[in-house]
Amino acid sequence: MNKYFKLYQSAKMILGVNRLLFIDTQYKKVFLAPKSIFYILEKFTLKSIQEILDNFETEDEKKIVNDYFDWMIKNNIGFIVNDKEILECFSIVNETFDTPYEISNMIIEINDFIFYNFDLITNFLINYRVPYIELRFYSYITIEQINFILNLLNETFLEEINIIIPFNNIEIKLLEDIILKNPRIKFFTIFNSKEEYSKDFYKGESKMIFTKININSSSHCGKISKDYFVLNQLMYAESQHHNTCLNRKISIDKDGYIRNCPSMPQHFGNIKDTSLENALNHPDFKKYWNVNKDIIEVCKDCEFRHVCTDCRAYTERTHFDGDIDLSKPLKCGYNPYTNKWAEWSTNPLKQKAIEYYSMQELVKKDAQKRK
């Protein structure tokens, strides 16, 4: 009886310049593999394993191919089907990305002016049914102020709220009470803490994270790390067609300027005199929404490109298409040509861009914390 190999629908292949990455979007796992597996699966679609083996001459080659299939089955990347007709019945997964939200996420850097005009933002969140928001407080904030904003957000359609605040000797129990009363809060990050640790709530669905890093401005955005990989179907599908950071995002920075992201250089007016709707309708507002990793220099050759959140605010500034920056993210230390990770800030090739963004002091402080 002929045996056929079938990838699970949750198993996705990402081909890099040197190797192949499998991601399991169901169990949130990644597996690195030789590129040759990709070409075997692509070339011999709907062929039995024996028919595939017949295309290789030596016993050593056949053994390697057999080992590939054994390895994929062992790691639940795929399974064996004994009938070709059954194999042909499996539907092809539609990898198009679609969402009912014109704006799917929003970032607000809170200052006094924004705080006292938050009702304008709340109306926008309701009208556009925005499901995600991140609130960033860079300076002193009271429990009462946090609760005031959360109460305003009660009438919105938000599904997830993330909050970033400084450590100011606020009683931890009061912060825990906020999470317990607001299950939509998924991450509550307290920066500039004396120690680093995290605590889970709602069986791990919500987290309180304490970090020593001083997140006092948007210049801390854009870091690329294995710790930040997103291994789900939604991320994978979106990354095929769109920019995984900027797509359907709108932000207000600490000075009230409306931007695609608080770190992006171009703004589209100030919340003092420009509505969020008018900013969103500016012809340049969406220009980066469809800049995906397949057209970004270096990233297009990277096996991690469809699980990695991109950054267009801080790049190496080496490749442009008109006014569209297609350069590799500045804060990425991975080299897909050597398959090595390194500290991005010490790379001599990045120093010119570090100076351009005036990040010398930030890089210096980060280096001191690593010691």
Shape type = globular
Q: How can the largest sheet be summarized?
A: 8 strands, mixed
Estimated structural class: alpha/beta
Helicity, in percent? 25-40%
Rg over C-alpha atoms, rounded to the nearest angstrom: 24 Å
Low confidence ranges:
none
Number of strands: 17
Indicate the mean pLDDT.
Answer: 93
Individual helix count: 12
Content of β-strand: 15-25%
Order of strands in the sheet with the most strands?
Answer: 10-11-9-8-7-6-12-13
The helix/strand order is EEEEHHHEHEHHEHEHEEEHEEHEEEEHH
Distance between the termini: 61 Å
Question: What descriptors fit this protein?
Answer:
single chain; 371 residues; alpha/beta; 8-stranded mixed β-sheet; 3-stranded antiparallel β-sheet; 12 helices; 17 strands; 27% helix
Descriptive overview:
With 371 residues, this protein is an alpha/beta fold. It is built from twelve helices and 17 strands. The strands form five sheets. The protein has an eight-stranded mixed beta sheet with strand order 10-11-9-8-7-6-12-13. Strand 8, helix 8 and strand 9 form a beta-alpha-beta unit. The protein is globular, with a radius of gyration of 24 Å. The protein starts with a strand and ends with a helix. The mean pLDDT is 93.
Short description:
The protein is of the alpha/beta class and about 375 residues long. Helix content is about 25%, strand content about 20%.
Walk me through the topology.
Blueprint: E1 4-7, E2 11-15, E3 19-24, E4 29-34, H1 35-43, H2 49-53, H3 59-74, E5 78-81, H4 84-89, E6 105-110, H5 112-116, H6 118-127, E7 132-137, H7 143-152, E8 160-166, H8 172-181, E9 185-191, E10 197-201, E11 206-210, H9 233-241, E12 249-252, E13 258-259, H10 276-280, E14 320-321, E15 324-325, E16 334-335, E17 340-341, H11 351-356, H12 360-370
Parallel strand pairs: 6-7, 6-12, 7-8, 8-9, 9-11
Antiparallel strand pairs: 1-5, 2-3, 3-4, 10-11, 12-13, 14-15, 16-17
